[in-house]
Every structure is written in C-alpha cells, then in structure tokens.
Amino acid sequence: MSADQVTATAPGRVNLIGDHTDTTGGLVLPMAIDMATTVTGRPGGDRVVLTSDTEPDPAVVPLGDFDPADLAPAWARYVGGVVAELSPSTGFEGHVTTTLPVGAGLSSSAALELAVALALGFEGSTVELARLGQRAEQRASGVPCGIMDQLASAGGRAGHALLIDCHTLDIEEIRVPEGCEIRVIHSGQPRALTSSAYGERRAALETAEAVLGPLRLLRTNDLASAAEQLDDEVLLGRVRHVVTENDRVRRFAEALGRADLHAAGQLMGASHRSLRDDFEVSTAALDDLVDRLEASDGVHGARLTGAGFGGCVVALTEPGALFEGWPVEAAASAGRRIS
Ligand code: GLA
C-alpha cells in the first residue's frame, strides 16, 4: 500500500428494539453487524470519484456548490451528501466494496456515508461523525431520518448493543450476554414506500407533540390523558407506539443486563405488534416471518428492525438455533467498529 492510500470501513446496523423513537428524542438499542462498507483510494484532483463493486456507474461528485439530490446514479447522492457537508479541500479517487445488502434495512447508506467521510479525512467525535452522516442522508434522500443508523455505525462495538438516548445522545454500551445469538433474517421483500410513509409518520408525531408536548417525556400511564386530548385514533396509535416503545427499550436493556432472555424476547414480540398495529409499518411478509420465528425452537423473540415496509427481521436465539434452512444475513454480536 502506498503512503497516501486510505482505507476506511463502517459497519451496517441492526436495531434490537426502539424503532421510530429516535425522531422524537426517544430511546433506541441498535448494534453494529458483521457486514460493512469499505472505501479505498487516494486524495487528489478536484472531484470525488468512486467506483463500486455493486454499482454499474461511478459516483462523480464536484467539490463546489451543488445539490446532492440532483446527482445520478442514485448512490452518488449519498457520496454527494457527505462531500457537501464535509467540504473537503481536495478531491479523492477510489473504490467502494461492501458486504451489506442494499434496501434490506441494515443501513447500507449510513455505512457508505461514514466510510466516505472517514476516507475524505473527517476528524471529530463519534457523535459529530454520526450527525454529519445524518445530514448527508437527509440531503441525499429527502427522508427526514433520525440519528440512530449513523450513530450505531459510528459507535458500534463488537459484542455490545448501544442504548442511545436520542435527545442527549448519551450512549451506554450494553454487553450482549453469553449463551445467546442475535441474527438478522431477510423477509425476502425489498423495502418499499419508506420515504413517503416515513415522512408521514414523522409529521404525525410532530402534530401530536404540538398538543401533548415532547413524547419522550410521556410515560405509559400518561396515555389515557393523551387519548382525551388527541381525539384521533390513528394519531393516538402513533403516540401509543412511541411511548410504549421507549418503555420497552428501558425494560429490554435491563433484561439483557440480567441475562433474562425470555423477558427480552417477549419485549421484542410486543414491539413488533406495536409497530404492526399502532405505527403501521409492518407488512404481511414481515409478520409471517416473525410468527414463524416465534414458533421455532430456540428463538426467544423476533421483530422487524429499522423503518419497516419490508427488509429484515432481528431474532434473539439460543446459540445455533437458526443454522438450518433460515436465510440468515448477519450476526450482530460479531459487529465491527469503524476504522
Ligand atoms: C430509519 C431511520 C432511523 C430510524 C429508523 C426507525 O432507519 O433512518 O433514523 O428512525 O428508520 O427506527
């Protein structure tokens, strides 16, 4: 490797519990997985030019003033989002490799953003890196996403989940107990509809907060009074999901801490049903996969993970439980760090 060659790697993530809570400053519990994106190349020139193993056309991004959302092909927008946020003084020429499936809900875009930022010389804290990635993602995709994906990728540590308070951005590392595995299984359905439905859900939560105040401050015993104030069943369902999900994240982190895998699994099932019935981001394929996993030997619990509308399910299992016949994508407990 020559002196000025740079290699930067960032992992994808799976969320164990706490979905659609980050945008209202709630609690999430993701972890990095053993699949990652790597950028290799050299600084130089007046553009950022990246080729990719998985994309037919390169990303060619200028350094000056531009709108990342105008770039083509689509993956160039994520590179462009990072370049626009980082404003590097010199260009870069390199290549991207990844073991992450795109559109599976494992945050391949967050991994790309962070690997590109690190390759382009980003210097700063974990939280600053995640914030830069989040802004890049929002500019590239137009989706008003929260910070979970980028913070999970930036702060991931093998064998640990991250309990993140998305208001303070405090991170507590929670060790995954011995004697269990966390597996990611694809539903076979690519994620769809995410951007419009995600934006609608976020807008609904803002409407609810205008009436109820910050949802992160509500507890489950505030829900009866929320129901009286809202007088809108759909909106109330969205709120009920967020408030009960924050509660489940707390209880799940405690259950993991005392290695109570049965309790943790039950909370995952309750989370899935809340995402299905109250937040309405599940699909028949995801529900069916969760049902089949819950009925399988050695599975403590399972739920959709991430935004929903297709993609992957996460399962907490006894060691080796899903080795035969299941399309397991990734093992989370072996997650890797950015480098
Ligand atoms: C997407 C977003 C995250 C988060 C999840 C749902 O992955 O990028 O910020 O909101 O959906 O939990």
Largest sheet: 5 strands, mixed
User: Could you say which small molecules are bound to this protein?
Assistant: alpha-D-galactopyranose
Shape type: globular
Q: Figure out the total of helices.
A: 9
Question: Compute the gyration radius: what is it?
Answer: 20 Å
> Uncertain runs with pLDDT below 50, 5 residues or more?
none
E-strand count: 12
The percent range for strand residues is 15-25%
H/E series: EEEEEHEHHHEEEHHHHHEEE
Query: What is the strand arrangement across the widest sheet?
Result: 1-3-6-4-5
Helix content: 25-40%
Structural class: alpha+beta
How far do the termini sit from each other? 16 Å
Average pLDDT reading: 94
Keywords:
alpha+beta, globular, five-stranded mixed sheet, 339 residues, 38% helix, four-stranded antiparallel sheet, binds alpha-D-galactopyranose, 9 helices
Q: What is this structure, in a nutshell?
A:
The chain is 38% helix and 24% strand. It has 339 residues and is α+β, with helices and mostly antiparallel strands.
